Amino acid sequence: xxxxxxxxxxxxxxxxxxxxxxxxxxxxxxxxxxxxxxxxxxxxxxxxxxxxxxxxxxxxxxxxxxxxxxxxxxxxxxxxxxxxxxxxxxxxxxxxxxxxxxxxxxxxxxxxxxxxxxxxxxxxxxxxxxxxxxxxxxxxxxxxxxxxxxxxxxxxxxxxxxxxxxxxxxxxxxxxxxxxxxxxxxxxxxxxxxxxxxxxxxxxxxxxxxxxxxxxxxxxxxxxxxxxxxxxxxxxxxxxxxxxxxxxxxxxxxxxxxxxxxxxxxxxxxxxxxxxxxxxxxxxxxxxxxxxxxxxxxxxxxxxxxxxxxxxxxxxxxxxxxxxxxxxxxxxxxxxxxxxxxxxxxxxxxxxxxxxxxxxxxxxxxxxxxxxxxxxxxxxxxxxxxxxxxxxxxxxxxxxxxxxxxxxxxxxxxxxxxxxxxxxxxxxxxxxxxxxxxxxxxxxxxxxxxxxxxxxxxxxxxxxxxxxxxxxxxxxxxxxxxxxxxxxxxxxxxxxxxxxxxxxxxxxxxxxxxxxxxxxxxxxxxxxxxxxxxxxxxxxxxxxxxxxxxxxxxxxxxxxxxxxxxxxxxxxxxxxxxxxxxxxxxxxxxxxxxxxxxxxxxxxxxxxxxxxxxxxxxxxxxxxxxxxxxxxxxxxxxxxxxxxxxxxxxxxxxxxxxxxxxxxxxxxxxxxxxxxxxxxxxxxxxxxxxxxx
Length: 693
Fold this sequence. Notes:
- By secondary structure, the chain is α/β, with parallel strands linked by helices.
- The protein is 17% helix and 30% strand.
- The relative contact order is 0.11.
- Pfam families: Glyco_hydro_85, Ig_ENGASE1_C.
C-alpha cells in the first residue's frame, strides 16, 4: 500500500505534481487548464473561478445567491469533494447517537480551509491533524463563511472512526443582518434554503449542520426562523437517517442576540425543533445540571460549550479544559469543545504531537473514551489513529511510545514506534486499541508488520470477555524460540500462540510480517496491546541462561495490523470491470521539447458495489516509443506515484512529460478496507497518447 496523502487524522506527505494555491477566497489557481498563468509579484492574482479545471480544493459558499442557484454542483471541484467513506452501520455510526453524555468537537482552526483545502493532499508534513477520534462523537467543521462545507479528508477520516460530521451555516455581523432578512423573507424562502442545505450535505456525504444565527431579528421573523430550523431538520432526517441539526445558543425567541449560556425558555423553542443545542461558553457551575433538567429526556442533546482558547469560558480552557469537562460530566449532559486547534495555533511546547497528545490526554482522563474499534471485520489500521495512552509528564517509563508520521512507513499512515531500554526478563505493554468486536465461530486471523533492531521483539496481547464476563487474555508472540517464549509468558496469559507464518519482505527491507490464528467463539475483543520484550540467546542444555543485569537499548516499529476471519485477501474486480476516462486534457510546452499535461481522470465500476472501495492509489507509467504498450512497459516499467483519491476522480496538474515519451498509462490501484491493494499489473488504467506523437 502506498503512502496516503490525506490531511485529517494522518499527516500528509505528498509526492505528486501539484501546484501550491494562494488564499482560495481571494485568488485563483496559479495553473488553470494546463496554462501557466503565474503572474509577476506586482500583478494581483485573477479571481477564483470554480468552473475552471485546476488543482481540486474545498471552499465555502459566501452568499445566499450561490446557495439558491445550486452553483456549487456546476463547480469543477464538486466531484472531488464528495466523501467516499460512509459511517459504519451497527453500533452507532449511521444510527442515532448513543444515550449517554457525548463529546462534540468544533474545528475552528485558523479560520478553516488551510492545508486541508487541498483535496488530493498537500506538501506540509506539519499540517494540523486530529488523531484522537475515539474521544469524539460529533465533529463540526467551522469557518466564518455563510456555508461552511467540510473538506472530504475530515469526513472520510471521521466516518472511518464512527464520528458524525457537520457543516456550519452562520449569519453574523452587518452582512449577516442582510442575509437574515433574505433568508427569512417568507416561510417559502426559508424552506427553500433549508432544502438547499440538506441537498449539499447529502451530495457531499456529511451528516448535517450546525446553525449559528448571531444576528438581531424582528419578532415577526422568529416564526419563520423556527420553520427554517424545523424544515431543515425534517428534510435532513428524511434524506439521511441518523443526520443531525444542532442549534447554537445565539438569538433568542424575542429576536435579541443574547447568549443564554444555558438551555432555558428563551432558546428552547429552537432546541425543540432540532437535534440539539450548542450552549455558549460563559456558563456557571449549576448551568449544566439546570440545562439537563430543562431538556428532560433529551438532556444528552445539550452540549455545554468550552472555548479551548479560554475566551470567557468556564474553567479558562487551554490546559485546564478538564475543569469544565468535569463539571459538565457531573451535570450529566454533553460537552462541546470549540477550537482544539489552540494547541497548534499557539505552538504549545515542546512540539505539536507531544502537546496534542497531552491535551487530549486531559480530555480522556476527564471523560473517558466514547468510541471503540475494532467493532466489525475486517479491521485494518496503519497506526494513523491508535488509542495510545498519554503517560503524563513522567519520564520514568522504560519505553517511549509515539506515532511517527514523518519517517517512511510500511503501509502509508504512520509507524507506532517503541524506543527505550528494557532488561532481558522485563516486558512493557502499551494500549493500541479498545474494541467491542463480537467474535463468531470462524478462526480469527491476525497479521501485523514489524521492524526491530537487535534482539528487540514485539507481540500483541488480545483481551476478551464473554457476555457472562468470563475474561481471557491471549498473547500472539513474535517468532522465536517457542519453549523460551512459553516459559516467559504462560503464567501471564490464558494462551500463548506462536506465529504460523513469518515472511521477510524483500521489497521492504527490515520489515517482517507475522501471521497468527486463534479461535474465540462467543468472545468479545475488548483491547489490543503491544508487548515489548527481548529474545534470549540459545545456550547449551547444560548451561543455564543468566539474564543481563542491566537494561539495554530497545527499538521496534509496528507498521500495520489486519484482523480478518477468512485469512484471505480481497478479490478485486478485473481491470475490464471498470470504465476509466480522461477529461479536460490540456498540453502545454515545456523546456527541451518536453510537455506538461493536465487531465481529470475518472473511473466507475460497470456493475457491482463500488462502496466496497474508498481508497485509490494513482500511478503513471511514462512509456517509450515502441510498437506495443506492453513492450513499452518492459522498456520503462517504473511507476511514478501521483497521489491518492477517496472520490472516483483525480486531477493531474502540470505533469512533466519528456520528449522521449510517447504515451502515458495512468493506473488506478484499488484498495479495500482490509488494507489490501490490487496488483498494479491487474489494476484499471487509462492510456493517453502524448500530443503530437
